[in-house]
DNA sequence: AGCACGCCGACT
DNA sequence: GTCGGCGTGCTC
């Protein structure tokens, strides 16, 4: 028997199955989807069995046997193996990367070189004294002790051996259990106990008082007050037995709870739910676009649709943007489905994620909620997949494999012939266009569930404010609104639209902006450390006291960060309690949730933050939302700038007035006539969609064309440009008539980490040659260009074209 | 990717 | 003479 194995080596010539012989004893357990350890050249690596066959086309003497089987059960089903293959092809990634991304990080192999002593008598004294009585030492430890050269010498002479140990990163958590086989034996033991063994007697009495068949050892020690030695002596005397039992790590239960009862649906919600249920009953793949304004109760539709498929004995996956994965959201699902829900969020440790994965794999839960990667939840009978806030760009992974969770969800739904729900108040143009063409089925929720009015939106022209002598960050209208809310003890959300715009240091005499020495990017000012940082490469330097160009002292930071906004806010309303949420205040584990929780509990009046606050907040006392600079995201060199701005403004406006109290929104801008801002006033998606589609058609951008970006980077600017031209020409010569190639041009960030970057944009409506051509290009690159220091990357349907 | 093999410069 | 630098080539 031959197993086809994809080995854990991400390199071009290795990206295919390798044949290995299956030892006869393992033939009956060998299955695709198992992880194995195999010899590969001079070393040993981990790999995945992707296929089984009787014969190999290769010479018998070339085939090596599998060294070890890692799993008892396959970790990847036939479905997921097929998915990985599809994903690798579509996104032009290594198959090994596509396989690895589907499993929790804890299951990725860890390699460690270990030295074993064979002939201890031939070691020199210094080496021997370092080893002590150890037979095996990691090479890492030997390197730290500066003994690497000796090890190499001994290895050549056969005095020591070096091999690679392959381990899983995180293990299953185990606890020690104590079993009482027979209570009578305890009594006998107590009678026969040595009179000096006071503690043992005490423990026996405790055990008799707490009759049980098995109990955690730690619990006995805690509650009986005896020490571990005492327990051990009972184990040694075989009065009790002990064993290691695998357990799941305990997860913190959410603080907020949901009633757990289905809510009464509005007519619109009912129509949507019925359509989904019917589709589900028919066992066909259908993708629904659930377009519901903020507060229209999309989540309730999800919950009841999930309930429907659970009753059919099927499973469901719910994807949400990481930032929306708040306790508030997850508590609602846990309240409804209780123990059947696994929540996969970034706050979990690697071990906890692994546990949740196993609970899904074993079929102990039926619903998985999580960010992007939860789309790979190892269910085997899926009945529904949901992407909430489907327009979010976080659904696209921006490193290899560059998959989009929406595409993966639809692929899986096709496999199981079940529905997909894409939900959003502001769908991506791609999805809405597909819904308009009938590829997706459109479901609309146009009214708020609790019949609240939409918030009133006021757009303030900041140029007028400036003319009127108001030089602060807050317009008169917003300042007034803030003061009113403080008096009425209502809450305020202030959004600082920082995308593509942060505080930088500028010389007021010569106009020089301090830039990163490695990247063509201005450095960002950080107040806490009084330093300038590059957000791309991590370079950090002190704030200069004079201009590096003209030595003027008139150099100071410019732009608007959240810290500066907080200071200005303090000047405006010193009595207000403010919670600031940005990268600086949310970088510790759980900080994001804690800040939101505090705000929900009313511990602050104002929540000030970046885009991360635009989603998922559902607090009844928020009645005012202020957007401090709405147009900063409009000036990005990106065809999606208007779409992103409209989405952000609509999402954040939806935070106001979600309960009984009416909401108000103030949008500050220097560009009030822009259609993305103008139309967000009425929060009316369809007119915006039509306007933006018009523009996309004129400019030939998605969704009218598909886009693929090929990027070339090199330390030498001339070589970067040269290869970019060669590569672009290569593609252009091979594409069909209808496709357009733009470039090469310097990337928006033309130098990053000391590498010069060029890119070309391929636009196409239908291009069957695309994948083959890109694969050919990749072959050229890997076989010759890469050796010359070129780095090339291919990104299909990028979320932005930087 | 990583590891071995192999062929040329500066050291005990 | 040998240690060790990194070019080249292969991995079932």
From TrEMBL:
Coiled coil residues, start to end: none
Necessary cofactors: Zn(2+)
Domain Helicase ATP-binding: 279-445
Note on how the cofactor is bound: Binds 2 zinc ions per subunit.
Keywords, in A-Z order: ATP-binding, DNA replication, DNA-binding, Helicase, Hydrolase, Isomerase, Metal-binding, Nucleotide-binding, Primosome, Zinc
UniProt subunit comment: Component of the replication restart primosome.
Protein name: Replication restart protein PriA
Species of the source: Sporosarcina ureae
